[in-house]
Amino acid sequence: MRTSLLLTTCFLILGLCAKAQERIITAGSAASEIVCALGDCDKIIGTDRTSTYPGTLQSLPSIGYRNSISAEGIISMRPDLIIVEEGYVKDELIEQLSSTGIKTLMVEQKRSFEGTKGMITEIAEVLGRKSEGKKLISTIESDLSTLQERISKIKKRPKVLCVYARGEGNMQVAGSNSPFSLLEFAGAQNAVPEIQGFKPLNAESLIIANPDYVLFFDSGLQSLGGIEGALEITGMKQVTAGKKKQIISMDGVLLTNWGPRVAQAAQELFKLTHPEYAE
Question: Is residue 23 scored above 70 in pLDDT?
Answer without folding.
Answer: yes
